[in-house]
Specification:
The chain is an alpha/beta fold. The chain folds into 2 domains: 22-51, no CATH class; 55-282, 2-enoyl-CoA Hydratase, Chain A, domain 1, CATH 3.90.226.10. Helices cover 37% and strands 17% of the residues. It has helices at residues 3-10, 36-41, 57-64, 90-99, 135-151, 169-173, 175-188, 203-206, 229-236, 247-252, 262-276, 278-282, and strands at residues 24-26, 33-35, 70-71, 107-114, 117-124, 154-161, 193-201, 215-218, 258-259. The chain has a 7-stranded mixed beta sheet with strand order 3-4-5-6-7-8-9, with helices on both faces. Helix 5 (135-151) links the parallel strand 5 and strand 6. The radius of gyration is 22 Å and the shape is globular.
Length: 283
């Protein structure tokens, strides 16, 4: 060992400092590096470009509901009813998804209050198999609607999905009319049904309960549509306008009622519950 190595190793700054792996996060919008703590404190919204990042079900519920809310137990459904297998068994895919997620499937329901207003909130988690709609998602959606009917309060659903779950075939598509019936029951009972469209909301979810609300709110920049842009262009053989499936374009053309930032969403939902159920709010 030469003298330079000996001196370097003896100095306090000679050892390499370890940096935590989760100290920084790259914004998916502007690609800027952000402090993870700063990003999380800003509700996973980039402070530079206002890109609204995707968040999990538990975090969404905590942002919207007052402290002390309860999470409904997830309903039991038949798993792998078709014994489906592609490159992997469906059961193996479910195990992998559950190992990365605190919940058994992609739809979680919380029951509590929003700024003192009674509400039931259902959240679809894109992190669980792309938020795909299968029997478990359909049954959890209906369980949330039944809870709102029991409590005589509004039902708010935050959607995020890539569509129906292909591994369940026709059984996944049957969740569309099933959920539609429950939204009808809410309407007949005079209870608010509000949909918050988050990034992305596509496929069979868009074709059913995501577009049946009394009010449709979208987060800024959210991708919302049924089929992908390339599929539509190839079908109609026309070039589509830039951003035509984004929240702002849909709001401008009347498909979405309002675009609300994540920081303002809780307050806006409380206001809507007051408007749509004034008697309950007064009580």
């Amino acid at each position: 060992m030469n003298w330079l190595s000996r001196v370097r190793n003896s100095l306090p700054f000679g050892t390499k400092r370890e940096t935590p792996d989760n100290l920084w996060v790259k914004c998916p919008g502007c690609q800027e590096m952000l402090f993870t703590k700063e990003y999380e404190e800003n509700l996973h919204v980039c402070p530079r470009c206002e890109h609204h990042g995707r968040i999990g079900a538990d975090e969404r519920l905590a942002q919207l509901l007052d402290l002390g809310f309860a999470v409904l137990p997830q309903p039991e459904v038949a798993e792998d009813p078709l014994k489906f297998r592609d490159s992997k068994k469906y059961t193996d895919r479910l195990k992998e998804a559950r190992a990365k997620n605190p919940h058994k499937d992609a739809f979680v329901v919380g029951s509590g209050t929003i700024e003192g207003r009674q509400a039931v909130v259902g959240v679809q988690d894109f992190g669980f198999m792309g938020g795909s709609m299968g029997m478990a998602v359909g049954e959890a959606f209906c369980a949330g609607a039944r809870e709102a009917l029991r409590r005589r309060c509004g039902y708010i659903v935050c959607t995020a999905a890539g569509g129906a779950r292909m591994q369940e075939g026709i059984l996944s598509l049957m969740q569309m009319p099933k959920a539609t019936v429950m939204t009808r029951r809410l309407k007949e009972a005079g209870l608010p049904y509000i949909v918050v469209l988050t990034d992305p909301t596509t496929g069979g979810v868009t074709a059913s309960y995501a577009m049946l609300g009394d009010v449709h709110i979208a987060e800024p920049g959210a991708l919302i549509g049924f089929a992908g842009q390339r599929v539509i262009q190839d079908t109609i053989r026309e070039k589509l306008p830039e951003g035509f499936q984004r929240a702002e374009y849909l709001h401008k053309h009347g498909m979405v009622d309002m675009v609300v930032t994540r920081a303002d969403l809780r307050e806006r939902l409380a206001t809507l519950l007051d408007y749509l159920q004034p008697a309950r709010a007064a009580a």
